[in-house]
Structures are given as C-alpha cells and as structure tokens.
Amino acid sequence: MAMKRFLPILLILSLFSIPVNLVSAEDEYDKLQQEKEQKVQEKTGKEQEKVQAEQEQQSIGTQISNTKYQISNVEGQLAQKRAEIAMLGQSRDDAEEQKQEKIAQRNGLWRTLYKQSRASALELFLGANTFVKLAQLWGYFDASVQLSRQNIQTLNLQVNNLTKNLLSANQRREQLEGEIAGLESQKVGLEIRRGQLTAYQNELLGQIAGLEGEIKNITARQEELIRQKLAATAHFTSVGEIEHAVEALPDPPFSPAFAVFSFGYPHRVGMNQYGAYGRSKAGQSYSEILNTYYKDVEIIEYNVPAKIRVDGYGEIDFEGNYLKGIAEMPSSWGDKGGTEALKAQAIAARTYALAVTNNGQTSICATQACQVYRPSKAVYSERSANWHRAVEETRGKVIVHGGAPIKAWYSSTDGGYTRLPTDFDVGWNSSPPYTHRVKDLDGEGRAYDGPGHGDSPWFHKAWYDTATDRHPWLTKEELIDLFNATLLPESYNEHLSQEVPVISTEPGWSKEEVREALRNEGIEPIEDFSEVKVAHSDEGYTFLIRVSTPSGTRDIDGRRFRQIFVLRSRGRLALWSSLYEIVQR
C-alpha cells in the first residue's frame, strides 16, 4: 500500500519538474524494503505453520489407534515381566532350599573329616592283626579323607554357584521391577496421550461429530465422506503464532454463481481471539475481555506450580518457559493495539493449562490437542517481546469459577456469536456454568472479529479445498438441487450423497431422482428461483432460507440445509459454521 501511495506522487512531481527530496525518497524506499522483508518473513512463517498444522492434523484416528497398540504392547511386556518375576521367585526359593541342603551336607562332611583326622597311626596299628591288614586300613583311611575333601570342595563350589545364582536372580528381579516401573509410567503417559488425542478429536472436529449425530440414516461411507470433506478444509482451532491474511476468493467461472459463506471458525466456544483483538483495539482491558467471554468468573492471583510436564519436553518452568512458549496468538498484535488481547490470551492459556493438568498433577500435550507450545518462542527475541511482556505482566493471574481454574476454551473466530458446548452445532458433552452465548457485537452491531475491528480471515469465508475444488462457486442448478434434497425427509439421507463422489463410494441420486422422490412424497420440487434470503437466529445460527420461486416462496430449514450441504455439495465444499449466508455473483 505504501508503494502505491508513493509512486504517483513521485511521477506527478517529475512531470512538473518540481525537485524531489531524495533523502525522503530513500527513507521511504528503505521503509518499503523493510515492509517487504517483513511480509516475506510472515509468508515463510505462514507456510511453515501450515505444513506443521497439516502434520499435526493428519489422521488423528490413526494416532489414537497407534497409541492403543502401544498400550497393548506395554501391557503385554508388563505381563511377561511379572511372569518372569514370579518364576524367579520360585527358582530363588528352590535354589535357596538346595543351597541349605548343600551347606548341611558340607558341614556333615566337615565333621566326619574332623573326626577322621584325629585318628592316630597307633590306633590304626592296634586295630590291625597283621601288617597287611594295617596297610589296608591305612589305605581306606587315606582314601576316605581324600574323598571327604573332594566332596567338601564340590559342595563349596555348588554353594558358591547357588549363591551367585541367587544374587543374579535378585539383581534381575530388581532390574525387572525397574523396567516395570518404567513401563507403568509409559503406560500412564500413553493413556494420557490417548485421552488428549481423543479430546482433540472431539473438540477440533466437534462439528463433524455433531453433523454426523444430526444427520440420521447415513451410511458409514457417507460419514467418511463428511470427515474427509471437513478435514480437507480444516485450518486451525486458534489463530496461531502468525497472523493470517484474508485469502482472495477466485472469480466464478460462470454466471450466475452462488457460494455458501460461513461466519466464524471452528467451534465458537469461549474466548474469541480475533474478537479479543478487536475489543483491545477498541480500548477494552483484558479483564473486560475475559469477563465478556466467560460467565460469573473472577481473575485472581493464583498459587501456580513452579513447573509443568509437557509431552515431548519433560518438566519445564511453568511461567518462565512454558507460558512464554505458547504459540496461540500473534505477538505482533501488541504493536497494533492488541496488547490487552495478548494479556487475555496469556491468562486464558495459563488457566487452561492448570485445568487440564489438575494444577500440574498430570502432563499436557504441546499441540492443538491442548494448546501449542514451541520452545523457540520461549526464547526472548524482538519478535516474541510483546508476548513475553504479556505473560510477565499477568504473572500468576488465573480465571476461576468457584475458586477453581476453568477450562478456558478459546478459538480463532466466532463470527459475531459464541455458542454453548452443548449446542447442536458443537455437540460436546456438557456446558459448564462459566460458558455462555455472547453477542460479540459493538454498539453499532458490528462484530468485534469482523471488518473494522479484528478483521479475522475466517469471519466470513467460503470453505473449499483449493487443491481439488479450485473455487467454491455453485451453479444455479446445483443450488436448486441442494434445496430439493433438503426438502426430502431424513429417511432419504442414504440416497443423498454426491452425484459424483469425491471419494470412492456409491454415487447419490441424480437431480432428477431427487425431484421424483419429492413428487412421490407429495412435495413440489423447486425448479427455479429469483431470490434467496437467509434468516439468522439471535443465538447465532441460520434457521431459515426463504426461496422466491415462480409459484411462491418456499421456506427451507437452515439446520437441515447445512447437513445436506456437507453431505451432497460437490467436491470438498464444506460448511464449518451453523451461521452462514448464500452469496450470489
């Protein structure tokens, strides 16, 4: 933008031969170069973050399966080692018994040898009638003594071997007990990891589960289609370390063209990060921001643990390392009026970590399954300075309800409305008392995460897979078909997959088959329309689509249309939010 402003002025001055201040121009050029370098760095960072996010989000189900397999292996090893310890115990008892028997035999031989050694030559002579008899007695005596000595040596060797075996068995037992302790710890860690991955699957892809739960009578292949479509368009649950640019929407290749734009992403529960940014720029404090998004809470000085266990990094300093390495909000916002948003994020991240780990009793993962931790960000730099300052200036501050830290959920964009965890479009298990629905609007009805405030790139967006879809636009015929499919009862859902499936599965009914099914149900199909209007609920979802047809207006249920859109729309077009509108070009 700076270059566009500067060049026309320079051109006009040169045409009228007015001297140009070259020093000022050089300064402006340097400034432009710095801006360009910054943009290049941001672009590189975004590309790296995208790659990392794709790596993190690949096949969560496979990770859970692998973790379960590892737990099974660990349990198998534990069983083997415990069995070996039991055998060692029995062997040790047998060896101890043998050892005592050998010691008793040896001691008996020692006593016999002692008695034999006290017999004198005179006693042998007196006991012999002849010289030959004496020689025989002396030979027997000497042989007996030698045999006793040999037997004693053998028994000593056996006792020593048994003693060594017992010592080795005890050492092996200690080794096995240490290995068992390590495996038990590994098993606990894996169980925690499995739980965290499951939580990630439930929270990040909560809308997928919610849609699957809402859409009845669908096949397993249709469920897989829904997962693939939504996963292909998934970006981030939170903003991340680098601010994302608004993506330019490609022009439609035909006219008229229609696209479904959603408001907000992804779950819209708790603090709205771009909304917090907008509120900060509007002059609100971190306390005002947090008390807006969380209900009936206090922000207090809390006795936080000195350290926290982070999966993959071990035990690290809580305030000085872990929190400073949280990469969930761009530090650059601090230079654009977002300082209070950074403070609100620091408190929310601190609170979430305490709630998830039970005040530091268990570990926390370092990905979006929990919240992103990057050790590189924990190291102070000019780039991370604003974030580090926010952490330091809120040190020890925690959001509590009833004296306990809350699970301070947050996501990137709420589209002007937050939702409850148990609302139909979120589908989590429960709604804690500190969560509530918020109209995230200013006094003029403008969303705090929308244009003029936070300006989130996900505030108003058509979701599609750029690699396969190329654009999100629908023809009029395709939109009419979606309307007609929506008018069919849910019992027809198994037939309402895509006409041309994006994955290998049975194709759904054709447009004409859908219209024929409507006629059989006594429902007039929509053949054409002149206007489409969308009605939004005050709770933050689209509840009605009013279609003007040649035969009059037709009302279509907004929730049902979203289900059908995700199930039947072409390619990988998706609809991440229950709050949406239909745009025409």
Describe what you observe in this structure.
With 585 residues, this protein is mostly helical. The chain folds into four domains: 1-55; 63-204, Helix Hairpins (Orthogonal Bundle); 220-263 and 462-584, no CATH class; 266-457, no CATH class. It has 16 helices and 13 strands. It has a three-stranded antiparallel β-sheet with strand order 9-1-13, with no helix packed on it. It has a three-stranded antiparallel β-sheet with strand order 3-6-7. The radius of gyration is 39 Å and the shape is elongated. The chain starts with a helix and ends with a strand. Residues 1-25 and 49-54 have low confidence and may be disordered.
Topology order in helix (H) and strand (E) letters: HHHHHHHEEHHEEEHHHHEEEEHHEEEHE
Structural class: mainly alpha
CA gyration radius, whole angstroms:
39 Å
**Spatial order of the strands forming the largest sheet:** 9-1-13
Q: How many E strands?
A: 13
Ranges with pLDDT <50 over ≥5 residues? 1-25, 49-54
- Helix percentage range: 40-55%
Question: How many structural domains in the coordinates?
Answer: 4
Number of helices: 16
Shape: elongated
Mean pLDDT: 81
Beta-strand residue percentage? 5-15%
Distance between the termini: 27 Å
Describe the largest sheet: 3 strands, antiparallel
